[in-house]
Amino acid sequence: MADEPLHYGEDYHFIPATSAASGLGVSVRPDLYCHTIQIVNICLVGRPGDGAFVLIDAGMPGSADDIISAVEDRFGSGSRPQAIILTHGHFDHVGALIELVREWNVPVYAHKDELPYLTGKARYPEPDASVEGGLLAKISPFFPNEPIQLGSRVQPLPEDGTVPHLPEFRWLHTPGHTPGHISLFRPRDAALIAGDAFVTVRQDSLYKVLTQQTEITGPPRYYTIDWTAARESVRKLAALFPSVAVTGHGAPVAGDELRDGLTKLACDFDRIAVPDYGKYVH
Ligand SMILES: [Zn+2]
Ligand SMILES: [Zn+2]
């Protein structure tokens, strides 16, 4: 297993995209930390000082050193997570995964329906440059799309909804953006890690990505392949009435801003989130 070849897709490369939040981190709870890598967020779950924590998602291509620094700044030098849990397998969520797995030698978990895209067996449909939206949608075909090969280093999440090493959390299947997309929810304080099921900055607009202008909106347009499932997933998350949400892109949102924005998105999903045209819109 140790010498199993791990590799990124052949089109993996550094993406020179950034945002006003890049390199910054925010503690939304004492044990819930969101850190921005260029345009995407990673999340560290665990209380500094306790020694045990889990990393959610693995950033952009070439960002392993930044992620290790963020981890060591928070948990101490030489610290490593107990596991890495993936909300889904898009390049901007697995970008540094292989370097991190080699550095830390920790297990990786994802939904079983996402495993084909993490083990080189299936590739995501091409991003849709024709979708209604801004400049980043137009250049999305230049984003890496070939599947990463993690072999037996990635394992399916337990079927019963429990999350390895995070006993207070449950994973929820929130497909639509990808087939095996998940979100993580903690009932005790209604904390939500949403992945890209919904995001707080529109990802097709270069200006909004750069400035990180907050608005609760649907999953990134050029990548979302099943808008019916995406709508159901947003409704499922809105029904939980989360008190705080860390999303894959954009700043964490809490309180009334989250409740009102998510309720509005769930009620008016087709108008707010679904593009007017695009090859995955029917
Ligand atoms: Zn995504
Ligand atoms: Zn994303």
Automatic annotation (TrEMBL):
Residues 39-249 form the Metallo-beta-lactamase domain. Pfam families: Lactamase_B. Keywords: Hydrolase. Gene3D superfamilies: Ribonuclease Z/Hydroxyacylglutathione hydrolase-like (3.60.15.10). GO terms for molecular function: hydrolase activity. The keyword Hydrolase applies. The keyword Hydrolase applies. This is MBL fold metallo-hydrolase. It comes from Geobacillus zalihae. The lineage of its organism: Bacteria, Bacillati, Bacillota, Bacilli, Bacillales.
